[in-house]
Design brief:
Beta Polymerase, domain 2, globular, Hydrophobic Seed Protein, metal-binding, two-stranded antiparallel sheet, transferase, tRNA binding, single chain, alpha+beta, seven-stranded mixed β-sheet, NT_sf
Length: 455
Amino acid sequence: MEQPWRRQIPSTVRRLWSSLRESSVPTYLVGGAVRDLLRGVRPHDYDLASRRTPEQVIAWAHQHQWRVIATGVRFGTVSLYDPRAPQCIIEHTTLRREGRYHDGRHPDQVDWTDNIEEDLARRDFTINALALTWEGRLIDPYGGQKDLDRGIIACVGDAHRRLSEDPLRIWRAVRFVGMDHHGQPFQLAQSLQSAIERLWPQLKRISVERQRDELWRLLQTPHFGRALWEAERFGLFVVIWPHWRMTQGFVQRNPYHRYILNHHLLYTAQEGPSPLLRLTGLLHDIGKPWTYTLDAKGHGHFYGHAETGAVLAKNLLESLHFDHKTIRTVTALIAHHMYPWEQVEAKTLRRIAREWGDEHVQQLWILRKMDIIGAGYHTRWAAEERVKRRWNEALSPSSSPTRLAINGKDIMRWLHLSPGPEVGRWLKQVQQWVDDDPAINDPQILKERILNAIK
């Protein structure tokens, strides 16, 4: 009879696992997949482990028509996939013991073993030091299930040693805080907190790409807000963004802001409905310390902070090697986040709809709401519905034509022009006329206006 949990695992993974175990070699599901199954969450990644060496796994795969990616043969890891389902990649790792780590990522020495508990002893946290047999027996030598039940993140063995082996585990621990435990975030064990407080500077040894990936995963967790506050408490943002230090304890001296700047950034990010907007919220006012002025009444002002912040954010995101699309989107949102939606006229709304695009505008609305709530004096954006109504009215089919009633060929014929920049300048001028008054979007009316404009 099939175990109930097994139905949560994709058929491709079940097929590989079943086939491997039929060779009389005990094969285990290990790590995060077991953790998530115990939490009742569908896993995203699947790792198998057995005493087979990488060479044996590769030979087995060739015999059984599985494809192989030699991802980390030196450390016992081989990735497998079925050519009929190439999107499902499954890692197999040889059971192993590890020596010391000197590069902050890989052990200096790896010895194979046939003991699953020895293999689990090398893992980072108790909730990941879990293995499951095909028959459904849980192997849990370090109390991982108990820590899951309590909502605790604790290291396997000595926390200081575990984090020293690979300091990226500091980011991983903070990311796991964002997991859901019966509606609440997870908590860090006191021993783990103490180790992080001592060892966080060692993150400077870790590549920015690995830290970026952990931050991005953190922003996708259910309780990302709590995890962000933990990252700030331990100084992790200063490691990846040295400019962040300028925000810490920065008093804004502004009647519209209740919090010091770094807290405002965290509260704003906390309101984001997507990882992209959470990242934007975290950086949207990063330019304030560089544009700070104080008036005669003692009020702080930040003229030009949006533009300055966009430049700084671009540099920060590039330093972490974010992809170009993310960098473009985040920096554009930061550059425009002070746009005065409440005051602009319908013709201006039509112009920015054309220039910025609807998706960008929709994200800006959300960012405005995040920013207002994150300032600490309001729980909603009072003008939100009014702005949306004015936007919809300005862009309704009756007041905002989908396209101009004329084109470049019309302009060339009327003005006896050849193709070139001048035609484009006329089209831009005509578009501005139509934005101001959509009623004139008629070929004859536009022709008369163009001819009158050259007299």
